[in-house]
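Why does residue order matter? Because the sequence determines the fold. Keep that principle in mind as you read this record.
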Amino acid sequence: MDMRQRNITLGTAGHIDHGKTALITLLTGCDTDRLKAEKERGMSIELGFAPCTIGETEIGIVDVPGHENFIKTMVAGATGIDGVILVVAADDGVMPQTREHLDILTLLGVEHGIVALAKVDCVGAERVRAVTDEIRRFLMGTFLEGAPILPMSNITGEGFDGFYKALSDLVEAIEPRQTEGVFRVPIERAFSARGYGTIAAGIPVSGSISIGDEVVLLPQSEKGRVRAIQVYGRESSQALAGQCAALNVPQWDHKGIERGNVVTVGAYFSPQQWYLCELKLLDRERGDLKNASQMKFHTGTSETAGTVYLFQDTPLAPGHKCLVQVRLNTPVVAGPRDHFILRAPSPVRTIGGGVIIEAIDRRLKRSHPKVVDDIRARAEAIETDEGFVEYCVKSAEALATSQMQISFRTKIPKAKVADILGELCQRGRIIQIGGKLYVHIDTATRLEQHLLDIVRGFHNRQPESPGIARKQLLDESGIRKDVFDGLIEVMLSNAKIAENKGCMALPQHREQFDDGEQNLLTEIDSLLRESLFSPPGAEDIARATGAEIPEVTRALRILVEQQRLVRVDQKLLFHAEAVAEARERLISHIKESGELESVKFKYLLDTTRKYAIPLLDYFDKIGVTRRVGYTRYLGKAAEQG
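Structure:
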């Protein structure tokens, strides 16, 4: 019979000695207590993994220890499960770790499960009914409210058929995990196998991995390549999120790998010390949580001490939520939407947990309202991939961001990010500029208005000018150049701005002059056209026109802006027709002779060295000619207009 594997993992939960391990043995035939100490003490100390066949479907199952001293191990095992079998012994009923395990499962976001009422062979029918009622009351208001409560015995097999049917229904009700994310597996354990080398085992929380893929071990930053894979204890070509998987990576030393390490791909993840989180304190917590409290922080399979800083002035009351930032004593690897558990160090207990929003590089000031508003926006954004991608574009520090930057920040594969960006562009939520950058529509609108205000202000100050020089607009805007260039292209295509004689202007702008100004401009234009290759300077023009030097200087600036004059160097201006004629003669000569000796250029123009050499240097600068010693050759721009 062909086995249908589903990438689902169930886990047990419940108080010590309530029959969790015995139930797994009955269900799978596997004894998950593999350690000598577990055999001797008759209790689970470490996590146990077993393949579980339900009809024609194979899933994974994790057995967790029930003793209060091993809660951190329980959390490590529960972090990767999709559904739970809560085991309650009929002779004991609901016990302390029954409550704490259920709290932890709730905080970890588990939503599916059934209840196995074990050891019914040890009690009478009346006790079974009483404990069933107790469990039903206990589960009210939890994700297990209304879940099947199934009396059974691991010894006699009583009730097993009903339990098995409910378990089958549970498996079918759970949606297998999506596998399109970035591969990541928090390590449960690592060991060495003869003939293979290092094996790292755990339940991938996202993505998939195949034989031959390159992986990286964090926080060690050690790269390796997957040589072999086992899923549910059998050889496989790949492992998927939600499956109990073991990866053979011979390049690693198993002695240097411990629970809490992470195997992933690429450069998406790195160990971080600061995390923004949304925390909920348990209803049953005995007191308020104060700012800067020292706590144990559990996420994935890792556990580390840390300090919790509240984004509110008052302590957090039981049953309430709060945005927090956590500083961990030891950096850990985690991503947006990962769940975490907080446990108090003394007395040791679970006090709450929640969802990681994002890693940050430093502590944020809670006294700044904009900071808190932004964190709230982040917390809301991470609920969906689309929301998070849009938030990343909107909050980009450089005003724009790229597909790669978004992918690394969101931990969403590049291909999916590209699809989301395309959809957001179609909906008008973001715009693409410069081919590779994305700007949020709110940011683009604000920046465009900023640019238009600068242009409008320039027109008001210099109405005679065709517009503001592009570089001046860039400098005054303070916008990064690639973002500026992209926005200008969009504004030009949308006719929000116009390019007028090489300057940026409002579309409706027209140069404004009085009669005196216009006459002076015409006079100067004629003077320089008449003296093509020996143009007069400002003082010569002032004498010829009777205008004052400041008036001449202003008029020359306007004529340059109008592209009627060309500034060859700081002091020398030629008429645009002179530059065009000189260029044509220069190119024609070099094409015929192959080169031009610099000294000969003045003869081509019938002028003096005073004017010829600066003009020739100008042609070098714009690429029309290429200088080698005192000889000129045609440059790349020679064939361009």
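The longest helix spans residues 441-461.
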